Amino acid sequence: MNKIIKNNTDKKTQELIIDGASCASCVGKIEVALRSIDGVDSAEMNFALRTVTVTGTVEIELLIKAVESIGYNAKSAEDKSDDELIDEKDIADQKYYKSLMRQVWIALGLGIPLMVYSLAGGPMTVDTSLERGVWFFIGILCAAIMYFSGKHFYIGAWKSFTNHTANMDTLIALGTGTAWIYSMVVVFFPMILPEMARHVYFEATAMIIGLIDLGLALEVKARGRTSEAIKRLIGLQAKTARVVRDVNGKPQEIDIAIEQVLLNDIVRVRPGEKISVDGIVIQGYTSIDESMLTGEPMPVEKSEEDEVVAGTLNKTGSILFKATRVGKDTALAQIINMVKRAQNSKPSIGRLADVISAYFVPVVMITSIVSALVWLNFGPDPAVAFAVVSATTVLIIACPCALGLATPMSVMVGVGKAAEAGVLIRNGEALQTASKITAMILDKTGTITEGAPKVTDVLIADESYSESYILKAASSLESGSEHPLAQAIVDSTIQSGIDPETVTDFNAIAGHGVQATFKGRELLFGNQKLMLKNGVPLMEFVEKAQKLADEAKTPMYLAIDKKLAAIIAVSDPIKADSVSAIKRLQANGIRVVMLTGDNKATANAVAKKVGITEVFAEVLPEDKSNKVAELQAQGEIVGMTGDGINDAPALALANVGFAIGTGTDVAIESADITLMRGSLHGLADAIAVSKATLRNIKQNLFGAFIYNVAGVPFAAGLLYPFFGLLLNPVIAGAAMAFSSLTVVTNANRLRFFKPQEH
Amino acid sequence: MMIINLIGLVLIALIVWWFWLYKPAKAVDASADNITVVVNNGIYQPSRIKVFEGKKTTLQFLRKDGSPCAATVLFPAFEISEELPLNANKTIELPSMLTGEYLFHCPMKMYTGTLIVEKE
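^ inputs. structure came back:
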């Protein structure tokens, strides 16, 4: 062998996960293939875990290629999971946020006292040598702040300048830079300027840098929350799985990491454990809580040939299932991916301040030069001073300080206002978009309805029994049952003050119902099949049961001593205020659409009750987002309201996603807005607050922009020939402060807004 | 005075030319090698990338700038929107394109770049 001898420090131990190795003879083949690579010292395969540990100096890509060349698939066991990648991103964002906040405090630490001093009427002029010394010292402090807190603006401005573009950085750098240079000229050479212009603007420099850094920091913070939804979804996945694999020739159950589960592996799930990957049950019987995936609160019974889905919770039995989809192919992994994509594909509304800056900056620069030239040529004495003052004032007043404040201030107040109404808004963009919603999609279960089934009707068939006796008998019987509807009956009766008692000879008949002896009487409780099987005559009650079924209820028969005693119906009731809330939306001209995975009969019955005419029933989880896209393609601005994990992709894709606060965490994290009260009135409230906020933002933008637009020609001296008016930098600075004040005051006006009473 | 006026006019002409009229000729050829676009200090580097018509292209993005806008890159013509992790490579696959110039930028258009698609 012609092995390359390398320094020992290059040696490393690497682990590969092998896919496709189904027989023990593969082990030798894979080990030999790896060992024959120059630089590999040892390669040992653990067949049970399907992993190979390789020691040597060879890069992992080469090892993977070698395994692939003999017909197997391999990947590095150290490939970072989504979980780790998100954690890394969060840490990086956190670090950036902290460093920005440090910069903010330092800049505002100087800026705020100076601003207060200036607003309180303190002289910002340089007349005496003491003032000169003090201002010189402050100027140096200010330069240190420009370096420490504002370095990125100057580098960004320079880089974008060399790239032939101008942006926000350019404006900030020009504005603060000019203010500082002008102020330093005032400190060193006050005599070259007219007396009225000997004013320093160090506070403007420090405040602008501090405020803009603060804006950046808040944005970083807000953005970090978007990965929460993904994190929670990933948290739903089981970390390990118990698979049946050959160890020393004998099949054994071993616990392995979820990433190592292969297609067709046999997986064991015990009660209380999460399903690790998607598969088909091959042995056992259980009920599985799929509510986190479907939003449906009732556990689903599973036996052989039934599908199980990763992330759902096994409740009662122990099952064996065959893995049919693993890794990135599981339904949960695909939902995670869909949410990620939808979050990224959300169109971002361009901000006025940034859209205009590309044209604004060069225009301002030219205006500044033109005004200087005009003053030099035609201005009265001292022409040079006038030229410098007007050129600088143009640059200072052009810095869009209040323009940057206009939107965030209104959004901040609007979000606070909405929170008072129990509406939590995730980001400013959602607040802005909510007012433009033209179509609202409502999920049924848990959104329009309560989401928890309850006993709705008790029809007595045999008058010799009272309703409380019937309920007591039914709940006593059901307290021993694992049937999904049983819990609804037990909970409902306990709530009405009836406690279940113990029954004997309990027997659950799969697919039919239950049977037991209660106080010496034989009870049967279940569906029509159970009654027919036991020869219980149902007579006209079949029709009554059908009527209940038509109303989206599940009827169950109770027979005592083989005689029909009552029908108990269970259903998911409609929330008390759903009807009025939906009316309020429709009154706003919004097209309301209902979307549900439930069957058509139940969906139509519910829709009719709440006054919705457009219904999509039996919609698969993956199709919910398609419906959103479909409405968007029709030109609608779509709001989506839901509570389950299955709603998450649709919530993320919709222009605005609304989650019900009582719903799953994943839905809440995927949505832009959360309705804490669970009432649909929150939707109309959110839209009302959004409209008021948007109006406020427009007023603010006008208020802020008018200072820049009107201020620039004024600063250039356009009014001087007619009225003898010239905006000096003092006024420019005051105008800037005043425009910020206008914006803050106007935004605060929003606090008095009340969403429509209901 | 004439000189000062002249300097002023030249400055204005320079601004107009620099920001509006200047069309950079240099474009980095993406077909030769894997190109890494560095996102830092307000610009994409390189910002003009040449690719061939009808070929799928893979671009690597490396974001060094923490600013929120830099965190997402959009290729509006191809409906691509990708989040760029800080200080880590992100691979973006572009579909095969027709001859022409296509912009890519951050959501606020502070960072802009151009894809120049040419016939081979």
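Chain A touches chain B through 46 residues (CB under 8 Å). The two ends of chain A are 85 Å apart (CA to CA).
thumbs up if we can close this ticket
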